[in-house]
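Hi F.,

I've been meaning to write this up properly since the lab meeting, where we talked about keeping a consistent format for the predictions we share between groups. The idea is simple: the sequence comes first, exactly as it goes in, then the structure tokens exactly as they come out, then a line or two of notes. No screenshots and no reformatting. I'm using this chain as the first example so we have something concrete to point to.
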Amino acid sequence: MNPESEYYLHFTVVKSNSIGAARTPHQHIKQIKATGRVRDYNLCKQCHSLLSVDQSCVAKYSVKWPGFIWNLLSRGELREFGPDMYYHQIYSGEYIWQAIPTSMRRWWVNSIKDLNLHGEYPYHQCTIQSPPSIFEDMTTPLKIWNQKCAEGGFVSIRSAMNDSSIVNPNVLCPFGCTGYCYDAGYVDWDVILQRYLWKAVLPHCETTQSEGAKKYNSIFSMSPHYFRDPDDYDCVLLNPKWPIKPRIVMTPEGPRVETCKSHGEGDKHMRLYPPRSIGPNIGAQRSDQLSHVTTTPRITKPVKSTARVTTCSMSKIEGSFSGFDSMSISSHSKWSGNPSYLLRRHEALSMHGRDDIRRLLERKVQVGQLDPGLRDSFIASTEDIISGMGSFKKYVDGATFVPFMDTILLHLAQTHDENNFGLIRATNSRNEEIDCKRSWSKTPKALGFNFTGSPL
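Output, unedited:
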């Protein structure tokens, strides 16, 4: 391996009497000063810095992360109540091994084979390639891409832009966004692993509890759908060769997980997460008609090309500080026109997951908007579509929602807000104070707390 590589380990032989006393849970060897018992330790660069007598390196994530990973693989949690537990007792060895990128596994793959728990070997089925890792290491591809871009020649730039692993928006942010590898933010790997192994309490890499809690709070509201089975991630343009996955990069500070550029170092704000999209995330040409409210764009004629000109027609569009209005809203449904499989699929998912949509379907029949025969066809096709989709549990797990009573409180607060507090004092460009309407809502405070919705 190239000695300049980020994965090349530089070892140093040190005496056991030259290392510091145990002062961190990431230290796995002892200081021995007794005459005749001094021994040699072969330490990598990071562990050498961590265990040196110099205290200034102890607080750095860049020197703690190897000890943190070995502690995760080989040790466990000291519990105040109940028996102590190894991490591979709380989770299976294969599950923990999935969190280690393939490029880093060769450092520990031989050592974990020797771990013995009462005659059982928790990692006996783990190899460098199996089970597949959740994290895709982008260190080498990104380094090569940067080198090609720095060369600046046409051939180099063309070769760099043909690398789909870099130029595609395939970085899955812990907060549900997607981004580009070359323009990503970062969060420390240890706090992401704590969310992955949420049943256990991992010894963080910070010096004090308050610093560790502050860093953990920065990713507390991360998406519940960030960790999935390795073959269950979405793909760019539905191409299985372009998966959108969690990605990691070896930086001078140590391995760090990539985020979108807006969420570097995490985000302390709380947020709601909808269920995952089922199947291809492609919308139908028309909006759902089996809905309490339907929308109709005010385009009377679609775009049409003739011999000399391309024409379309729109009846009305309005714009203001609140946005643009280019569609009409109605409670009336229209099922005329060419049938659409995507539209039928959308409505089938609504019927399957919502009892109110099924009742709405019966109501449409009663008021004459829908023929009874078409209703029966809707129900039959819904069963056919849903039967081919399998279980919806993995799409719904972890999603958040707003309870019904909270929606009532939000509605009441919104009405009160608009009637009494709709105007604010503002200063215009001529330094004049004027009354204007706010473009944001104060209603989230109506619930009396600032927290995510209840998990499903």
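Notes:
The chain has a mean pLDDT of 81.
The CA atoms of residues 317 and 326 lie 5 Å apart.

If this format works for you, I'll send the rest the same way.

G.
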